[in-house]
Amino acid sequence: MKGFWSYFWVVYMLFFAIPFPMLIYYNTREGLSDTNPYLAITWLALSVILWIILVQRWFRNWILLPFKMKRNMDYLLREGERREARVIESKDGKQFKHDMITKGMTVSLRNFVGTPITEKLELVDTKPGEMRFEKGRVIYLMIDKTLKLRPYLTVDTAQADIKAGRMLLTVLLWLLIVGAIAGYYYFSYHLENDGYGWRFMKFYHPLVLCPVILFATHFGLGLC
Questions:
Q1: 211-220: which pairs have CB atoms within 8 A and are 24 or more residues apart?
Q2: C-alpha–C-alpha distance, residues 21 and 1, integer Å
Q3: What's this model's pTM, rounded to 2 decimal places?
Q4: What's the CA gap between 98 and 53, in Å, rounded?
Q5: What are the b/e assignments for 168-202, b being 16+ CB within 10 Å?
Q6: With 0-12 CB in 10 A as exposed, 13-18 as middle and 19+ as buried, what is 1?
Q7: What's the Cα-to-Cα distance from 138 to each of 36, 91, 117, 190, rounded to whole Å?
Q8: How far apart (Å, rounded) are the C-alpha atoms in residues 38 and 60?
Q9: Can you give the residue ranges of every domain in the chain?
Q10: What is the pLDDT of residues 110-157, one digit of tens each?
Q11: 58/180 Cα distance (integer angstroms)
């Protein structure tokens, strides 16, 4: 149920961020004769800036970040310091296929100065039948000595991989979103200009309001 509700709230908030402002706007449109052209251009510029920030952030999070994470993971497995740790808590999470499951663990270990500490760790167990990460088991971690990488620690048996098919779909999705935004500018202009150019732009136009709501709900900055 947790997974269902997380998706439900994503869809729910996206409805209020995109279709809802459009429904309100196209049912309350006003004439253009009293619209200040300079103010309209200001709203247009604001909308362009907001959408550029959003699509750049989505590009970094959806496309560039996986490659950065893989690079960091490869470096961590190659150059990190190997440390013994003991699993003091282990919980099963979401199951992938029949032979993979997410694990949420709390492990105890000694830091670089020998002080006992605990760390929380999440991973995908590709061999759950071996019970490698159950409570009480000893595992080995690779830790970044500078503690600056993301992630800065992982199990020594971890593997870094990027699925080409999934990445291709992500790139296509990002391009589709960019195309839809550009197409909506074209659509809005030809539908609403009435010979007045961009004077139809107002603060509650979807081209302005949608990115503002996306920022406010953190979907624009956090969706991945």
A1: 211/47, 211/50, 211/51, 211/53, 211/54, 212/50, 213/16, 213/17, 213/21, 214/17, 214/54, 215/50, 215/54, 217/13, 217/16, 217/17, 219/10, 219/13, 219/14, 219/17, 220/53, 220/54, 220/57, 220/58
A2: 29
A3: 0.78
A4: 40
A5: eebeeebeebeeebeeeeeebeeebeeeeebbbbb
A6: exposed
A7: 69, 16, 15, 66
A8: 33
A9: 2-68+164-222, 81-143
A10: 888 888 999 898 888 888 888 888 998 999 999 988 888 888 888 888
A11: 14
Question: At residue 219, what is the residue type?
Answer: F
Strands of 59-134, DSSP E: 81-96, 100-110, 116-125
Amino acid at 214: L
Positive or negative CA dihedral for 48, 51, 52, 53? positive
Token pair in block for residue 103 = 């694990």
What digits encode the pLDDT tens for the residues 36-83?
889 999 999 999 999 999 999 999 999 999 999 899 989 998 989 999
DSSP 3-state of 131: coil
Structure tokens at 71: 């690079």
User: Which tokens belong to 94?
Assistant: 């979401």
DSSP string, 11-48: HHHHHHHTHHHHHHHHTS---STT--HHHHHHHHHHHH
